[in-house]
Every structure is written in structure tokens, then in C-alpha cells.
Design goal:
By secondary structure, the chain is mainly beta. It is built from one helix and 25 strands. The protein is 1% helix and 48% strand. The strands form six sheets. The protein has a seven-stranded antiparallel sheet, with no helix packed on it. The chain has a six-stranded antiparallel sheet with strand order 2-3-10-5-8-11. The protein starts with a strand and ends in an 11-residue tail after the last strand.
Amino acid sequence: MSKLIVHPAARPDEDGVVLSVTPDTAGWTYVGFQVVKLAEGQTISRTTGNQELCLVLIQGRADVTTSQKQWLGIGERMNVFEQLPPYAVYVPNDDRVEVKALTPLEFAVCAAPGHGGYEARLIEPRDVGTEVRGYGSLERKIHNILPETESADSLLVVEVFTPAGHWSSYPPHKHDRDALPDESLLEETYYFRVQPEQGFAMQRVYTDDRSLDETLIVGDGQAVLVPKGYHPVSAPPGYDVYYLNVMAGPKRVWKFHNDPDHAWIMNPK
């Protein structure tokens, strides 16, 4: 079994956590990630410590409160595959946050080092940049939840909808060298949902020297760690694939390098 795949728990713990990645468990420095599932009426709270957070409402509605601000009744997407842009909340380090589920709720806790640079804020669907990227069987829908053009200390957060039979994160690209302006070093997690849920996605993670070269079969509700290397994704025929990406590194810049063997795909003759 690959160490790059993180499996969800059979049931939520007392704080609703069903899947968790920390820098210690991943063997890296910057990115933390959790999936929380709450029953209607359930409330959880936590302090942020030295991390900034981006809470992404994957599906369901909630009240969210920080030490200074409150947003009531947020959330519009009841099923992630409605493909509506999500509500999200940015919470800085040295703060606290409480989430109350108004419906059955699934949300992600995206975490990375915070430096106190920004205040808590609501990210509404209208604030989320939406684009269609690629062409033909490379076409996919992107929601830029927390891109580098928006304020944060470390976090970059994006979600992608890959239609059945399509590829995404393609052509294969990587961002594992602190070598700006050519490439930035960013750790990354992929959190997958698949429709219908008995399906799967495929993801390959590999380096130029093939010291890392794994082809992964990823199920609904699982996550993949990308510590380095190229990392394309495929959605098999019959199954739509969603994933939520969290990235962070020493500099908050997304500058990637395409696999030179496959870069020609972006400019076909």
C-alpha cells in the first residue's frame, strides 16, 4: 500500500475529523490538512496556534465564528458535484474558530504557517475565481479559492472538477525546487471525491530520475501526498472526479515546471 495515499477513518472522531495530514505524518514542513464531518447541530472549536487556516465548505451549511468576527448561515453547495463555487473562511494564526453545522456538513481545514499578516475574512462564491482550463480531454473546471493574488501568509487553495474520461494536473508538472523565477517549492495535498462513489481516480507521482515513481488508485474520500515530482490525474470513463488542493512552501508563489517529455501537448500541431 502506498505511503502517499491517506485513508479516511471509518467514522469521525469526537471533533468530527475523518482524515488528517500534519507535517509530522507527511514528513514535510508546511502543509496540514483535515476533513471534518459534522452532524446537523454539532459544534466544534479550535485555536489556530502558529498556523493560518482556510476552512472550505465542501458541502453543507454552517455558522462560523472567530474571536472577532461571525458569519451565519454560510454555505450553498449541498453536494460537491453541483460544482458551485464554495464558501470559505480565512482564519489567521493566534486566533480561534468555531463551526456549527446547520445541515450535515463536510468541510476541509487547510493549514500552513501563519505570520499574523491578515485578519479573518469570509471568502464568498463571488470571490472565487472560476475558469475552464485545457482543451478536449484535458478540459477541467477550476475554482481558485485562495490563489496567490489574494491575501494569505502561506496558503494556496484551489479545487478542480475533472469530467469522466478527462485528465487534469496535465501536462504533468512539478513545483519541488526553490528556484524562482523558474520554479517554486510547494508541498501539496490532493483530497478526492468521486461520483459515483464506488469509482476511483488515477494519479501518478514521479520524479525525473524515477527515484519516486508511483501510480496510485485513489478512492472517494482519500487524499494523496505530493512531496515532490510530477503528479497528473486521470478520471476514468463513467466517473467524475473532484479534488481540493492545498499548497504551501517557503515562498507563496505557484511557479511550476512541465515535464519536458510532455510539454508539447499544450501546443499541438
